[in-house]
Amino acid sequence: MSLFGSRPVSRAESPPPGPQEKPKPPQQALEEFWDSIISKAPGKVSNIFPRSLYANILSPNKTAGASSAQNAAASYEEAAEACRVKVKRIVRECQRTNEKYTDPDFDIEEDFRRNRKNCLRGLETEEVDDDGPPVRVDAGDLSAALGALVASNVLGRAPNMNMDLVPLMQTLRAGGGGGGRGTQPECVHRVDWIFEEPSFTVDGFASSDVQQGSNGDCWWIAAVATLCSMEGLMEKVCVARDKDCGVYGFVFYRDGEWISTVVDDTLYLRFRDYDADFDDYDPTGEKERKWKERFQTGSEALFFAKCQSSNETWLPLLEKAYAKVHGDYDAIAGGNPGEAVEDMTGGVTTTFMTNKILYPQKLWKELLNEKKEFVFAASSPWLGKDTESRQGLALSHAYSVLKAVEEVGEDDKKVQLVLIRNPWGKRAWNGMGEWSGAWSDGSKEWTPYWMKKLNHHFGDDGEFWMSFRDFCRKFNVINRTRLFDKNWIVVQQWTSVHVSWVIGYLKTKFVVEVKTEGPVVVVLRQLDDRYFRGLEGQYWFNLEFLLKEEGADHDDYIVRARSNSPWGDRSISAEVDLKPGKYEVLPKITAARDTSKPVVEAVVKLAAENNPKKLRQIGMNYDIAHAKGGFEEEELQKKERERKKKEAAEKKKKEERLKKEEAAKIAAEKMIKEEQKEALMDEIKEEMKEEAAEGKEKNPKDGDPKEGAEDETFVDAKEDAKDETVDEKNEGSKETPKEEAKEETKKKTKEEAKDKTKEKSKDEEKDAKEDVKKDSKTHSKHASEDRTQTHKDEFETTKKHTPEERKKPQPPGAEDVEEPEDADKNEEEEEEKKDEDKKEEPVEKPKSEVEPADNPWNAVTVIGLLVYSKDHDAKVTLVKPVDPEDAALDV
User: Fold this and answer.
1) Which is the catalytic residue, given 215, 422, 542, 858?
2) Which of 202, 513, 634, 847 has CB 3.0 to 4.6 Å from 875, enough for a Cys bridge?
């Protein structure tokens, strides 16, 4: 029986013998796993087009940059005035050429004629297969075709067919929601062709004017209707126009700054021209006139948004301008109504989940909006498409909140009611779109008293009343946007950050300085990727932040702001009263990844070949937005770091070279001294030998054989050392000037030594000789061996320290002259080439290392902190962690 109930293993089942890899420690295996899926050098595409492509053109639209401080009203006025000037210049040019204005950047007529659809759709992000580009089919046409197949019984009474569901899903999704018909526009004409008596506005801007078209932009239409309910807001968006020339100017708020744009008056229509497909005999033109009158005249003929009045044009032109700044009509399909209000007012939106509201009456007071400082919108639950409903309310749909009232009923009880509007402007074909519960049109709550009290009339106009209680129960999201007047100032700071796979507060932080006590609105924002759809990449980000006093502990915070939306928001904000002082804002960003989406580089490569015109438009939007991220500054800092590194390396090389030169100089000087000493010793020894020889000749019997042996040994050692030196010199082809200088030094030393010897008296010479003889007799053999070994060591040392000096010819005194700069540069270039060769050599990875992933985690985003305050001295400063490389180089 086996232990722990496991089945015993038979011999046949045992693994074959052989060497097996030793298992890695668990921690090592885990660390190698994380190393393989996390990018070692995180980064982001900072600009679609390299700077070289901008070299020969004027700079694109300027942005406020990474930081700015502006009065909220003054910054708007600057953009509005720029828009007015632009329209005046266009009008002047139109009058000169006697032509209506055609927008070269968003020419929907030319785009439609060439069937490019760049003004309708975004960048293609799918690879084109061998069969050609993806086929575009209208959802309505597909539905009609399938219905015809079923009705005709071509496939039998129980039709079955194999079908690819992916293109079917994409076609149905492209049909659009929000009450749209899911078809494509059929033609393009100018305003004066479509409308009999066109007028930009009829009796001003009104919520009842607004009707959604065939695009899924209910969120934006709802925001427009809400703004129309407050006097003066829409006039600030539509700032300039000339009906005769067909030019209209608008301003929008984008990523912390106001921008302006102009459009012409061409619009998309639902039905094609009478003779678009065939030539019908119509000698009087009556058939064509009736066709145009029925299908191509007035607001009902428009494909996208329209006004209720048949001759009013402001809404379709405003929608066109909004689509233009974002790239196309597809880019504005689906969104948050609070963000749309921000785009047209420059306000700040806060999102509330109705099931999380702590004090409903606090929210009610804000809904009353007595000071007119808020704008509200609401969204229905995300339980299905907007073609489905719950008690009449379309699901996943945005509604306008027009106003809230608190009135006393006939029974003296207070009633809290909210007036809401569907952006469709009417009910759908099946009656859905408006609330069907209490206080809906025709409900029992509407007595003559209340009809008169609220001045309400039943009708299919998209407007309906709800009680505040039902409003909080049936709508799950409420967007409240705070508006700012000239008393507010906004300061902002932008940067780019790497978002780790592990969630936590970033080391990069913002410091807010307030000098006057008062209300402050703090906003942490990311770039609006709606402006560069298709190039947003694989990551999306959810924002949070802490606001605390400078130096305080993280747990001792003043505000903790988090997103309430399950899909995340473009920005998060917090309103708080602050006393004078410095405060820190710590961002916390959660990143999620969708690997089914293409990376930016792949989209650019595909679009550059298949649709360069669209890439220029969206790519320019991308570059303008990411200019706020400080990537250019980071690039300059990187170059500065590289420059400092290079200077430090050059300085180190120069110091090493100087050390080598100094060591060679010292070695040469030492060698000269040793040779001088050697020459003197040789002279003395020669004299000793001569004296010894003379003594032997005079007294041959008294000669000591040992003493002669000693002298002979010493001479042999000296001769060996000299032979080595000679051999070393002979290795070079010629005797160098340096060696000649040494020989001259030897000769001078010998002559000086001889002169000194001759000057000595005979008695001193005898005494010296007797002393030397006694000393040599006493130390005979040991002294001789020590001297021999010393000279050999000295010559070996000289050979080691100065090999190049012995081989290269140098003039006398060359050891004191520095090498020319060209030689230094050549030497440095050779060393750099060696370093590059080493870098290019493939480095074999250890077998234990896990191969890195093809597309590792690399989440980088651009964030900005915007602070709205009535203190005009408020400041925002970006604080990044110190780069250890910079710190080391600056020391």
Assistant:
1) 422
2) 513
Q: Which of 83, 187, 218, 238 is catalytic?
A: 218
Residue 318: its H or E element: helix 314-326
For residue 409 the two structure tokens come to: 């009923």
Strands 581-593 and 539-549: antiparallel
Under DSSP, the state recorded for 209 is G
Evaluate whether 400 touches 223 at the Cβ level (below 8 Å): yes
- Cβ burial, residue 829 (10 Å; 0-12/13-18/19+): exposed
Q: 420 in helix, strand or coil?
A: strand
Spatial separation of the C-alpha atoms in residues 537 and 91, rounded to whole Å: 40
Is residue 228 part of the annotated active site? The answer reads no
Does residue 391 contact residue 371 with C-beta atoms inside 8 Å? no
Q: Are 853 and 37 in contact (CB under 8 A)?
A: yes
Threshold 0.70, pTM exceeds: yes
The two tokens of residue 112 are: 């439609």
Interior/surface letters 406-428, b for 16+ CB within 10 angstroms, e for the rest: eeeeeeeeebbbbbbbbbbbbbb
Q: How far is CA 817 from CA 45, 650, 665, 774, in A?
A: 52, 21, 10, 48
Please give the span between the terminal C-alpha atoms of the chain, in angstroms, as a whole number. 72
For the chain of 891 residues, list the mean pLDDT of each consecutive stretch of 10: 41 55 84 83 85 75 63 88 97 97 97 94 68 49 65 62 54 42 83 96 92 93 95 94 97 95 97 86 89 94 95 97 97 93 96 92 94 93 76 91 94 94 86 90 93 91 94 94 93 93 93 96 96 93 95 92 77 96 96 91 93 94 89 63 81 88 88 85 82 68 46 46 45 45 53 51 47 44 44 44 42 41 51 52 48 78 95 93 49 29
DSSP label of 596: T
**What is the rounded CA–CA span in Å between residue 280 and residue 302?**
25
The Cβ of residue 805 has, within 10 Å, a number of other Cβ atoms equal to: 20
Q: State the Cα–Cα distance between residues 248 and 201, nearest whole angstrom.
A: 13
Residues with Cβ within 8 Å of 887's Cβ and at least 6 positions away in sequence, in order, are none
Q: Which domains does the chain possess?
A: 102-148+167-342 (no CATH), 347-481 (3.90.70.10), 491-629+858-890 (2.60.120.380), 650-696+706-814 (no CATH)
Q: How far is CA 416 from the centre of its chain?
A: 48
Catalytic residue check, 83: no
Q: Which tokens sit at 879?
A: 């604080």
> Which residues, including other chains, have CB under 8 Å from residue 612's CB and lie 6 or more apart?
none
Q: Residue 548: CB partners within 8 Å, gap ≥ 6?
A: 554, 556, 557, 558, 583, 584, 586
Both tokens of residue 202?
A: 């009829």
Residues 264 and 275: beta-carbon distance below 8 Å: no
Residue 747: what are its φ and ψ, rounded to 5°?
-60, -45
Judge whether 186 and 140 are in contact, CB under 8 Å. Answer: no
The catalytic position among 189, 326, 397, 498 is 397
